[in-house]
Amino acid sequence: MGQTDDKNSPSQEEILHLFDSPDLYVEDMNWQSGDASCLRMSRESYSASSFLDNRAVVADADTHTIRLPISALMRAYRDKQPPARPLRIIAHTALCGSTLLCRCLDLPGHCLPYKEPYLLHKLSGIWRLGLQDKLQASLAAAGPPILELAVALANRSYDVAEQPLIKLTDSCTSLLPTLLGHYPDSRILLMYSDLESFLVAMLRSPGRREFARNMLTRSRLDLTAVGMGRLVRDEDLGDGRCVALVWLSLMYPFLRLLASVPQRVRSLKSDVLFSSPLETVASVDTFFGLDIGENRLRSHLQAGILSRDEMQRTVSFVIELRRAEQKAAANQFRDEIDDALEWAGSITADAPIPANLPYPV
Predict the structure, then answer these.
(1) Which of 68, 152, 215, 253 has its CA 20 to 30 A from that of 222?
(2) Which residues contact 332 (CB under 8 A, 6 or more apart)?
(3) What are the beta bridge partners of residue 308?
(4) For residue range 296-344, what is the model confidence (pLDDT) as tens digits?
(5) pLDDT in tens, 131-161
(6) In whole angstroms, how far apart are CA 187 and each of 153, 223, 268?
(7) C-beta atoms surrounding 59 within 10 Å
(8) Euclidean distance between CA atoms 261 and 303, whole angstroms
């Protein structure tokens, strides 16, 4: 997808109607070059994509990335003035079943999940560093606010009755207060796992250990932003403690968000989804106002959604096997896990994270 496809470039008419259909997906924007990277998608390819970044499943494998001027996207937004739609967001701590939840809600004509759109991930870094005003000032004076444009692009659907749902990357905690404040009809579900489960999921993979270390700078910024900068220390952390700090940097912003506008923010512990999938998905349906209905959800889940891997739909998934693998990993890394749990408890004794977040869905 690093190649460009000029032959398949959209017509002016297609750009004009960009906000009428999600077929042209805007994956990224390069502020320096002024170009946007776009992919041709279909309703099925959105369902098949676990991530809407360079791993997205495009509608036509022979079609490569399409380049468009960002100014053309802004012009289409100004000309169309797409009406604001209710914003439905899933934020999460990673590796907690959020992709599975999206698949459970993915019903054409009813709900279209956008799973981890890269553009919003990129903007979260800009917001985290407080550079949003500088970025906006560098763009065309007549352009719409860049966050409004990005949200509008990830809030399209194939039918007026089909409701978009945006599952953000775990990096997007920095965007959540802005989204909640700017969109009065927004609703946010915060999905999380407990610290021990998070430790097991991260420590069992060398790649995830490295990922956690790479997240340390971001985690420290996020903790400082919510008044928990005292947890940021200069000590050289082992992998377990590093993973624990990453988890804390997600959970404290979640707690603050839940306390701010509880009627529009709810929490969901991952264990609840896996133990009572139909009841949980039905509650999420009600919270988001998707109007799918329990009977339709029951049929959808019975069709095999829960028996397939959440990331790879062709791979089978057995909950008992997942639990056995988690138990084996917990035993394997018991010393690291116990050390991280004790350390996290000691540094958060004055502001502990509750075992269950308030306002469950």
Answers:
(1) 152
(2) 204
(3) 316
(4) 999 999 998 888 776 666 777 777 888 899 999 999 999 999 999 999 9
(5) 999 999 988 767 799 999 999 999 999 999 9
(6) 18, 23, 13
(7) 17
(8) 36
Using alpha carbons, select from 209, 240, 251 the residue that is nearest to residue 343: 240
Closest residue by Cα to residue 344 from 246, 269, 254:
246
- In the predicted model, is pLDDT for residue 76 greater than 80? yes
Q: Do strands 88-92 and 163-167 pair parallel, antiparallel, or not at all (unpaired)?
A: parallel
Measure the CA angle with vertex 303, ends 301 and 305; round to 5°: 55
